[in-house]
Design goal:
With about 260 residues, the protein is α/β, with parallel strands linked by helices. The protein has 10 helices and 14 strands. It has helices at about 10, 25-35, 45-55, 65-70, 75-95, 120-125, 150-160, 200-205, 215-225, 245-250; strands spanning about 1-5, 40-45, 100, 110, 115, 130-135, 135-140, 145-150, 165-170, 175, 190, 190-195, 235-240, 255-260.
Amino acid sequence: MTVVKLGGSVITHKSASPPRVNHEAVKRIALELKGYNGNLVIVLGGGAHGHQAAHRFGFGDPKTPKERLLAGVPAIRHNMTLLSMQIERIMQNVGIPAAVFSPFSFVQMHDGSVSSFPMELIQRALQTGLTVVTHGDVCFDDIRGASILSGDTILVHIAEILDAESVYIGTDVDGVYEADPRDKPNATMIPIIDKSNMNQVMLGASSSKATDVTGGMTAKLAELTKLAGKKREIAVFNLSVPGRLEALLSRKPVLCTRIIL
């Protein structure tokens, strides 16, 4: 059982407006996924499709009134549907039996946190041999009206419930760095993160410069700490480099940050 996060900065042209899927990258990623033999859940980051609309309607700002957040639901849902359907089609075209599960349809939230995330249909889909595709989304929230459910939160929830053996987080950098490598090109990549350095690493991690209402690398690491206590292979890697995802899925050596919790 493997859960793979496809970072929005790779699968979309994140600075493009209106948002556009990076079809060339997604087709290459789909071909790398095709050879995997096992249960597979693919989680899509929102990229341009999610973050631009969410930012426009004030998600990520605690002062935004409930009415404005709810007004943003149709735009975010439209964009995420476009993203997920295009990626589903590309995967099916290369022979992956992909089926999309949109969290808006079944996940409930309470003051920004998940209150209900039923897994029965996802489990049934996996049992029938389907590859499950899900994605960051907007969901109804009984306190705020609506909240963003990040792909990182989804990844961790599914990995916990399904007891995934491997969790791979694809980004547009080689791994986790002491500082943002876009700001500091000489920043050092951290090959292993464990209990001895996790707190220090999180202090140095910074959010992406692109519009992102889900917190960037710091939020990713905070979510991944919830997977502590079980022996899993967890890696943050550069999804934009051809062959690295395929190498991870084949358990071959690859440049990345390994997280041992």
